[in-house]
Amino acid sequence: MKKVLLSLCALGSVFVQPALAQDAEKLFQGKACAACHSMDTKMVGPAIKEIAAKYAGEDDASGILANSIKNGSKGKWGQMPMPANNVTEEEAKALAEWILEKG
To answer: CA-to-CA distance for 90 and 15, rounded, in angstroms?
Structure first.
């Protein structure tokens, strides 16, 4: 029984991961993110790929990014602060994980 449950959980994660990535990309486009960030080019804020590269391999990178997305940040990428965003904890985490995957 235990093996069956583990197999079902593993199989379920295969279908959930692409859905989360799609949801995060929709969040990125639907929230204010795309007004300041693009995938490859610095705009008002750094490119998504630059952000992913900066945090690659860092302990709790997802948590750090999720906190910056939800609460804003200042001084991490120069003088321009990033304002807090109207997102839930789950949305901020999904966006952070999506950013890290894009690197």
So the answer is: 18
Retrieve residue 92's tokens. 């901020």
Residues 81 and 89 sit within 8 Å (Cβ to Cβ)? no
For residue 97, what pLDDT is reported?
96
User: What are the backbone dihedrals phi and psi of residue 26, each rounded to the nearest 5 degrees, phi first?
Assistant: -65, -40
Q: Which domains does the chain have, with CATH numbers?
A: 2-101 (1.10.760.10)
Handedness of CA 79, 65, 25, 93 (dihedral sign): negative
Output the six-digit token pair for 24. 């995060």
pTM over 0.85? The answer is: no
